[in-house]
Amino acid sequence: MVNGELYLEMKEAALRAMDNSRELSDQELQEQIEDQLRKRDKEALLSFMDRKRCADAVFASFRKFGVLQELMDDEEVTEILVNGPNRIFYEKSGELHLFPGAFSGEGELSDLIQAICAGGNRMVNEASPIVDTRLPDGSRVNIVLHPVSLDGAAISIRRFSREPMNMEKLLAYQSLTQEIALFLEKLVKAGYNIFVSGGTGCGKTTFLNALSEYIPRDERVVTIEDSAELQLNGIQNLVRLESREAGIHGVSSIGIRDLIKAALRMRPSRLIVGECRGAEAIDLLSANNTGHSGSFGTGHANSAYDMIGRLETMVLMGMDLPIPAIRRQIASGIDCFVHLGRLRDKSRKVLEITELAGVVEDEIQLNVLYRFVETGEKEGKILGKWEKSGDLLRREKWEAAGF
Questions:
Q1: For the whole model, what pTM was predicted?
Q2: What is the pLDDT of residues 27-51, one digit of tens each?
Q3: pLDDT tens for residues 270-296?
Q4: Contact 78, 91 (CB under 8 A)
Q5: Percentage with pLDDT > 90 across the chain
Q6: Which residue among 76, 105, 256, 353 is the one 20 to 30 A from 298 at the CA level?
Q7: Are strands 238-242 and 221-225 parallel, antiparallel or unpaired?
Q8: In angstroms, rounded to a whole number, what is the distance separating the alpha carbons of residues 187 and 398?
Q9: DSSP string across 101-150
Q10: 386: left (phi > 0), else alpha (psi -120 to 50), else beta?
């Protein structure tokens, strides 16, 4: 760790020495910081490594993520949680840890927040104190400012692997079996509409990335997200759309519903909606019911069955329809739910694959195809197996694809 007093001293010295008449290159800034350190440390009180750590920390405060840079450089860190300037937590190997570093104060934390928002073309201030954005590497960022966040500004960074996730890696992590992977491959190629459900942090976005490798390469795909996170594998004819919040100078907001409507005019073979949270669910279902087979979507739910209720609620946010009519839209617009979960040993698995088998007496019928069943626990790891519970009932697309 860097000495806090020395860090502040060197940062102030670097600021005083800066030439404000022009933009310094990264190399010039680094040299200036090192020069200030040499002047301060004439008696060689610092070791080479201490001096390097201090120089890197000061440089990071100007051009990178400041005290968070050490965590950003660690590829095994999956989440970074900042609760005000003095409390920083991070998740590594599924476990949360307290980070010993801290920001010098609210000012430094605020500077970082504004830099993150500017990089993602977003705006956050007291008038609009909550924002979702992303980093250049695709990491998801949520920011909540004081006084909404009572103990100081809060930052949540959900990081993704620099290499897109694929099905081979999910198999290596034992998130599913080879049999299920082959079954999903056929569902995607046959044009089944798949909706991925699960709780926070269970890997829905990661799973969509892996599923995308099965999309035929001659198809045109349009992705629609609040903050662009998907890293689709090998799709050449790809259009990525991202929502926009209202801004200054009369800049209007563009929501998910607007993007879905625009996407339908782009001749898509498939639509992929990163996450359904509200009224956009009715637009996705309508698109799925009007010839865009093979579309994907995700949503938060505790089970595949609960996802039906969540979708009903989301549809009602956008249109006042009778529940039976909504259920018919869901049953015809979505072919299968893939429900993911994060188990108590921190592993992420496909817990259930369920077919929506139509509507009987105004109730959606679910046909469970695969289900993960726990068989025990060994050395803190959950043991289990995937049981095949049934066969596809709606086979029109399956047979049309020649399977």
A1: 0.78
A2: 666 666 666 666 666 554 666 666 6
A3: 999 988 888 999 999 999 888 778 999
A4: yes
A5: 48
A6: 76
A7: parallel
A8: 7
A9: ---SSHHHHHHHHHHHHHHTT---SSSS-EEEEE-TT--EEEEE-TTTST
A10: beta
**What pairing do the DSSP bridges indicate for beta strands 270-273 and 296-300?**
parallel
Region for residue 380 given its phi and psi (left: phi exceeds 0; alpha: psi -120 to 50; beta: otherwise): left
Cα dist from 401 to 292, 309, 313, whole Å = 15, 31, 34
Q: What pLDDT digit, counting tens, does each position of 13-24 carry? A: 655 556 554 565
Name the least confident of 74-78, 326-330, 333-337, 373-377: 74-78
Locate all alpha helices (DSSP H) within 41-86, ordered by sequence.
48-63, 69-72
What is the rounded distance in angstroms from the CA atom of residue 235 to the CA atom of residue 214?
Answer: 10
Share of the chain above pLDDT 70, in %: 82
The pLDDT tens digits for 342-359 are 998 888 999 999 999 999
pLDDT at 233 over 80: no
Cβ burial 248-277 (10 Å sphere, 16+ → b, else e): eeeeeeeebbbbbeebbeeebbbbbbbbbe
pLDDT on residue 25: 64
Between 48-63 and 4-17, two packed helices, what is the crossing angle to 10 degrees?
60
**211 and 184 Cβ atoms separated by less than 8 Å:** yes
Taking residue 278's Cβ as centre, other Cβ atoms within 10 Å add up to 14
Beta bridge partners of 339: 197, 352
Distance of CA 323 to the CA centre of its chain: 31
The reported pLDDT for the residue numbered 397 is 92
Name 360's Cβ contacts closer than 8 Å, sequence gap at least 6. Answer: none
Please report the pLDDT score of residue 222 as a whole number.
94
**Which residues contact residue 236 at a Cβ distance below 8 angstroms, ignoring those fewer than 6 apart?**
217
Distance in angstroms (rounded) separating the CA atoms of residues 254 and 259: 7
C-alpha distances (whole Å) from 115 to each of 36, 74, 134, 341 are: 25, 21, 12, 34
Question: Residue 391 has which token pair?
Answer: 């066969």
Rounded to 5 degrees, what are φ and ψ at 274?
-55, -45
Parallel, antiparallel or unpaired: strands 194-198 and 296-300: parallel
What was the pLDDT predicted at 7? 59
